[in-house]
Task: inverse folding
């Protein structure tokens, strides 16, 4: 290999059978995979809604009331209903993959997968309760 | 791009964890329970008092910025694989991480300048 050669992520000259853009609809597990990846769109959506809300709170009572009215519109209620399902799907798949992504060892033995996943679910419950407590106290 | 990819992967992981642990509760409250009247939303004054606390600002920054980078990373690969756009590798990367960067900068600017 010459010093100038570069690693490329794809090889345009290889023969490849054309795959339809809809390849992920051919099998249930493919569709689940793509749905899981698409949860990120709803994650970004809610991050932006949060930013929008914070900016309204900083701007004043009128701006905030305007945002609250918009959140009550059918469009936003529908978006949030769908987004909630996708975010739940993200959470569950994320916690179930945690033992695979992060292998914990205690005393030379691997901590069983269900313990690692279980700890994630416990943290989820505790933090959700904490969020509700802080927000509803106000 | 390849030199900083471990860093982008770490942001993806951190953002995914934040979104998994905290987004369902926040989204349920602000997106559904409050607008539908299932629960009483906090008053404006209470919220205004809350967001000016330094810890709340830090919390909100983490809550907004990290999940945006999680999206950037995941969505980028969804576009490559799902729509077979591998030839647009750099363009899509710049677009996704750029959007996450702009969102995070706006969040930082907003939270930093709360009077």
Result:
């Amino acid at each position: 290999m010459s010093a100038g050669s570069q690693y490329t992520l794809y090889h345009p000259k290889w023969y490849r059978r054309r795959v339809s853009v809809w390849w992920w609809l051919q099998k249930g597990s493919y569709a689940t995979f793509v749905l899981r990846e698409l949860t990120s769109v709803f994650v970004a959506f809610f991050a932006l809604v949060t930013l929008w809300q914070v900016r309204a709170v900083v701007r004043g009572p009128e701006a905030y009331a305007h945002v609250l009215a918009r959140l009550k519109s059918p469009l936003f209620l529908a978006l949030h209903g769908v987004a909630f399902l996708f975010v739940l799907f993200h959470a569950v798949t994320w916690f179930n993959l945690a033992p695979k992504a992060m292998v914990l060892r205690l005393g030379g033995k691997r901590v069983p997968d269900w313990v690692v996943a279980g700890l994630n679910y416990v943290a989820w419950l505790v933090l959700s309760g904490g969020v509700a407590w802080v927000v509803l106290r106000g | 791009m390849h030199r900083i990819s471990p860093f982008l992967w770490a942001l993806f992981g951190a953002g995914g964890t934040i979104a998994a642990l905290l987004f369902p509760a926040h989204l349920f409250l602000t997106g559904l329970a409050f607008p539908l009247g299932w629960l009483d939303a906090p008053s404006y004054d209470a919220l205004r008092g809350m967001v000016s606390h330094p810890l709340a600002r830090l919390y909100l920054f983490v809550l907004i910025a990290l999940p945006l980078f999680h999206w950037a990373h995941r969505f980028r690969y969804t576009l490559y694989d799902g729509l077979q756009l591998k030839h647009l590798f750099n363009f899509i990367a710049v677009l996704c991480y750029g959007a996450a960067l702009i969102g995070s900068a706006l969040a930082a600017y907003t939270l930093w300048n709360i009077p």
Notes: The CA atoms of residues 24 and 31 of chain A lie 5 Å apart. Chain A touches chain B through 56 residues (CB under 8 Å). The mean pLDDT of chain A is 89. Chain A is about 70% helix and 5% strand.
